[in-house]
Amino acid sequence: MAMEIERKFLVVGEAWRAQTSRIERIEQGYLSNVAGLTSANSSVRVRVTDEQAWLNVKSVTLGVSRQEYEYPIPVDDALVMLATLCEGLVEKQRHYVELDGFIFEVDEFSGANTGLIVAELELDAEDQPYPKPAWLGREVSNLPRYYNVNLLRHPYAHWSASEKLGE
Predict the structure, then answer these.
(1) Do the bridges between strand 3-11 and strand 65-72 make them parallel or antiparallel, or are there none, so unpaired?
(2) Per-position b or e across 134-151, b if 16+ CB within 10 A of its CB
(3) How far is 138 from 111, CA to CA, in rounded Å?
(4) pTM here?
């Protein structure tokens, strides 16, 4: 079984930008667990970057550790799936920031989620120590509204002021 251990944080300020080693554009859509399917045990998404595409199945378990399975698929197939099988897209630029042997993936969302910037960090264990740069804000790993599938259902542009402040 494939297990993903990932912590998710809000990003504070702009200092992280100078540390970015690579940027890629990402578009993703969901084939299951979209609006109205709250009882599903998993989400199934198609993701396309600048040069590659994947089919991803992830458990909807709340928290830092979740089952995840990811398979490369032809880009042309993925583009057709995004255009014909998905209702809406989550669009973002992923900035890779390397720090002390760790890679932070800083997602700067666009479209209906413009203004939201979240850093993700994959770990080998839930209790593994990791660097905490000044730009790493509050941890939101246990808040479902920050899951990409939920950003499609309830985009950042529609959040109330208190949601945006993390209350």
Answers:
(1) antiparallel
(2) ebbeeebbeeeebbbbbb
(3) 23
(4) 0.90
Instruction: For the chain, list residues with pLDDT below 50.
Output: 36-37
Give the DSSP H/E element, type plus range, for residue 79: helix 75-84
CB 47 within 8 A of CB 107: no
Measured on CA atoms in the order 73, 126, 22, 109, is the torsion positive or negative? Answer: positive
Q: pLDDT tens digits for 112-145?
A: 999 999 999 999 999 999 999 999 999 999 998 9
Annotated catalytic sites, by residue? Answer: 30
Show the domains of the chain with their CATH numbers. Answer: 3-164 (2.40.320.10)
What is the C-alpha separation between 9 and 27, in angstroms, rounded? 21
Tokens 């002390």 identify what position?
100
Identify residue 30 by its one-letter amino acid code. Y
Contact by Cβ (8 Å): 108, 93: yes
Q: Which two tokens stand for residue 159?
A: 């959040």
